[in-house]
Structures are given as structure tokens and as C-alpha cells.
Amino acid sequence: MEDVLASRFVLDGGDGDQSFFGSPQILQVEPSLQNARPDGVDAFVMRVSEGTRKGRLVVLTPRTLIPLMESIQLYEMASVIVHLQSEGTAGIEYDDISSNRRAIGMSFLQIAR
């Protein structure tokens, strides 16, 4: 599991806000916030490391019944709903993430090659 979370991921296209999905976004798991999720919440908290929204946090939740980690491990991809975190996210906690984000569309999260 740790190896997967250390990977770089890509969202390349998607339905929704084309100012985000119109070009590839390279993402990495934000380790300090990944463990802040309440038990039972299936989400990846990621930071855009390359792309039009570089530096922004996104929260990815599954579009399917397969948990995100299981989908990534089995298929190297997951169908996700993309939630863009509000600006000014230094030192945020999970409660801030859950209340200060908005769904901007859906895409496929893939391990970057």
C-alpha cells in the first residue's frame, strides 16, 4: 500500500470544470492529511504537483463500489469524483477539507508513467 501512495498519479481529461480537466494534472498523495481522514471515509487527499492548479489540494472519492486503494492496486486506475479544495490550505485539518471543498467533476485517476 505504501508504494502505491508514493506514486505520482495523473488525471488526464474528465467531465466537469474544463479549466481543471482541460489539461493533464499530476497529483501526489498529501501524506500529512491522508491519515487525518475519519475512519470509514474512502478518499485520497492529493496535491497537484504539475498542471494548471499546481499546489492546490484535491480530494478524490470513488465513483464505484470498489474502494480507491483496491481499484488502484488491481487496475492501476480508479474512477473518481474530484473535489477541489478552497485556496489557502496551509495547516488544514480534515474538518476543513470536508467543509471547504466542492465537486468539480469526475475522471479516471491513473498511476503516472
Helix proportion range: 10-25%
Gyration radius, rounded: 13 Å
How many domains make up the coordinates? 1
* Beta-strand residue fraction: 35-45%
Main sheet record? 6 strands, antiparallel, barrel
SSE sequence, one letter per element: HEEHEHEEHEHE
Strand order of the largest sheet: 1-3-4-5-6-7
From the N-terminal CA to the C-terminal CA, the straight-line distance is: 18 Å
Number of helices: 5
Q: Overall mean pLDDT score?
A: 82
Short summary of the structure?
With 113 residues, the chain is of the alpha+beta class.
Your description of this structure?
- The structure is a single chain.
- The chain contains five helices and seven strands; from the N terminus they run αββαβαββαβαβ.
- By secondary structure, the chain is an alpha+beta fold.
- It has one domain (2-111).
- The longest helix is centred in the middle third of the chain and has 8 residues, at 68-75.
- The chain starts with a helix and ends with a strand.
- The model has no long low-confidence stretch (mean pLDDT 82).
